[in-house]
User: Fold dTDP-4-amino-4,6-dideoxygalactose transaminase from Glycomyces sambucus.
Amino acid sequence: MPDPYGAFIPPAKPHIGEEEIEAAVAVLRSGMVVQGPEVAAFEDEFSAVSGTDHCVAVNSGTSALHLSLLAMGIGPGDEVIVPSFSFAASANAVRLVGADPVFADIEAGSFCIDPAHVEALIGPKTAAIMPVHLYGHPADMTRLTAIAERHGLAILEDACQAHGAAVDGRPVGSFGKAGTFSFYPTKNMHSLEGGIVSTDDAQFARTLRLLRNQGMEQRYANEIVGMNMRMTDVSAAIGRVQLRSLGTWTDQRRANAARLDAGIKTVAVPPVAPGAHHIYHQYTVRVEGDRDGALEQLKAAGVGSAVYYPTPIHRLRPFAHIEADLPVTDRAAAEVLSIPVHPSLSESDLDRVIDAVNALEV
Ligand SMILES: *Cc1c(COP(=O)(O)O)cnc(C)c1O
Assistant:
């Protein structure tokens, strides 16, 4: 069907504006390009989003997860309970420190890890629980925190999709021992590549700072074995510019989601749990029928959509040997479809998305 109104509506639209470009150029001209004043300021400013005393910037969200697990002392012989319905980075980080992921199912409504299943999976090797705030909807931190306390376990929050999401007004990234955020271009804010770890524990933050920089605080006085996971000041400067718009962009995403909620009649729109502040990194519907056909029909109508994630982690080759029976996850992987909700959508774009979804034949 020809598109009578305008161009193809992309499922995500990373923003790189003049301010970002100028901030990057200013850093390049300054000559202080790696883990300098911009990184320090970005860490300080992002603490307001995570609601924690400390933030430690690194070169990606995956690095943030990896370093957090190392700093928690998790390694061979340990198990970490993770959802299978997530981006592979969540489980990759567990394997990279030599520990074993144990896959929990999700709740059908929030798409986030199911606390009851988490508790059933806890055993003598369990070292930590890693909830993922998928699509920007917070996991049930009230129940997960109670379970972790009852069993003496640490929580590491994968908040890579959830900048500013909250439960009963408390921001994600502030519930666990640590939280991790990604600044990849398609996330709600970006720094080209980048990530941050949030924590209230000063000693833990110091360990992270050592680990990201070869184990050094003072040059050539290496205290522990570490890596190079530093953020550049170019990234931090771009992140600082983006951070100034995060609140406005989140409001716009939430307003767009409300429009979609009200307009869509043909498929199940994403429910929001009581007390949850959803920041709509993705707006994800369920298509009970020919989901992949729906994706093609939307494309033909000029509306970009995407499936996050078509294959749950426990069915990916590196993890397929791990025993897991996850019916809610399998069903979600077969039904989910994320449609545009990003802040660049115009009123007429939103109408086109709604009309295209309501015209689906599945
Ligand atoms: C994006 C993402 C990551 C990894 O972040 P990168 O910055 O791409 O390394 C980890 N977990 C989840 C859930 C993500 O969406």
